[in-house]
Write a structure and sequence with these properties.
about 55% strand, mainly beta, four-stranded antiparallel sheet
């Protein structure tokens, strides 16, 4: 899941035989790292998975639309983490944000092409907000407290 590229090798002895492996990218953290919290969410035609660093809040996100991978993206959900889509079938924006209550949210504001039974079809509005997960390992904003003086 957190690798930079696939390595395709063609067999030298068998025609039409291939071997596919992954080339590790040492700049990306593994999903089994103790300081990273994995997440995953599928909603309609969209799939988001990855991990968030519990101290720095850096995310590695894999985004899929119609099961087509758009790659590994990096960003911070407590800052602007927005992906603008200008595809043939989907146009709009996807945002991942961290709320003050330590919840990781996926906001989808897109138009999706819907094929018509009789005719060419049209774009329809697709807006959703989904809670990806609560982040118990991440401290909330300092102005949000449980009533105890710090």
């Amino acid at each position: 899941m957190f690798y930079s590229a696939l390595l395709v090798q063609r067999s030298g002895t068998e025609h039409g035989a291939y071997k596919i492996g992954q080339v590790e990218n040492s700049t990306l953290c593994g999903y089994k790292s103790k300081d990273r919290m994995p997440f995953s969410l599928d909603t309609g035609i969209f799939a988001v998975s990855g991990s968030i660093h519990t101290e720095t809040l850096e995310m590695e996100v894999t985004l899929e639309v119609y099961k087509m991978s758009l790659g590994i993206l990096h960003g911070y959900p407590n800052q602007d983490f927005k992906v603008d889509l200008d595809l043939n079938m989907v146009k709009g924006r996807i945002e991942i944000r961290l709320t003050a209550f330590d919840e990781l949210w996926l906001d989808i504001d897109t138009k999706v092409f819907q094929v018509a039974e009789h005719g060419s079809g049209k774009f329809i509005q697709y807006r959703k907000a989904h809670l990806i997960q609560e982040m118990p390992g991440v401290r909330c904003k300092p102005w949000v407290s449980n009533g105890v003086n710090i």
